[in-house]
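Troubleshooting log. The previous structure file for this entry was overwritten by mistake, so regenerating from the original sequence record. Sequence copied from the archived sheet and checked twice against the printout by T.R.
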Amino acid sequence: MKNTDIFDDYLFGKLNAAQKSEFENNLKTDGVFAAAFNQHKTLVDALNKYAERNELRKALKAIHEKEFGNDAKIISIKQETFYQKLGRNVAMAAGVGLIAVLSALALLSTGGYILTKQNNAITDLKREVDELKYTQDGIVEAISNVGEKPKYAPANFEGTGFAINNEGYIITSLHMIKGADSVFIENSDISRTAAKIIFTDPKIDVAILQIDKADIYKEWNLPFVFSNRNCDLGEKVFTLGYPRKDIVYGEGSLSSLSGYHSDTTMYQISIPVNPGNSGGPLLDEQGAVIGLVRGKITSAEATGFAIKSKQIINAIEVFNQTEKNKENGLNINVKKNTLKSIKRSEQIKRINPYVFNVMVYKAN
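Regenerated output below.
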């Protein structure tokens, strides 16, 4: 059934109780669906008012003819020229036409006819640094004084990544590091260090990096797991990421179990996410990773999307099954979660060392 038919059935009371409840839930949780419905309702209201005005005119004309006959004329107290009257009628018709065009555009867009591909309506959340672009290693080696911390050139893009195991592997968003000349990671515990790209999956927009220096992760003890369970609508969730230089916490709930255009590989979340959040973890109340932040709807605030952890686990399993990776495949922590039943602030303290600011340098 077309969206327009569903909208009309709702407006004219043709839906049963279950259908009406599902429809109203979609209005609350799906911003694109709600916007299309509001445009359609505006169109219907405008057409109804236009029809009512015509009916009123017919009724008044009938009364006039009955009382005064067909030849009598009504003279307006305020005289109106032919051109004024013509302009008023044209303006009314144009107004109704404009509403109709806008509504049609909204409905076509919602149905996917105008959008050439799904990602057009989703903003990638990589953070572009508004300074000069640098190539190669992206590092300025100049040190003004002995012992002073090196001064680094700003990255082209920055975002977020987080560990998947204790072996120095970090997951992030592919759209952020695609075409990178070099990639670095850092957080409050780890100074800037290089990482190399070892795995990508364009279908779900994820990439896995490996830290170059083994001594950085030799003491790692990952506190969280990647959950493979089916989550429930309305579950409380939280994010950690780098929309700025310091790590930022966000909390909300799962507002839909599918993403934009009902994409079953993603969740929709009611958390404000911003450029720089790309690649960050989405976690449940027990501190288990249930997704990776992907982007947000360009036209809606506090509406984000995250790739489901189940999709990530499946992608890594496929990677490990290839002939060259059977012996040295990627391990992903799915068993040991030490964050259960502890307060949120403590969960965050334990997770923070394993969430990183990812800095991407690209050649000109």
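The chain has two domains: 3-114, 122-364. Archived copy saved in two places this time.
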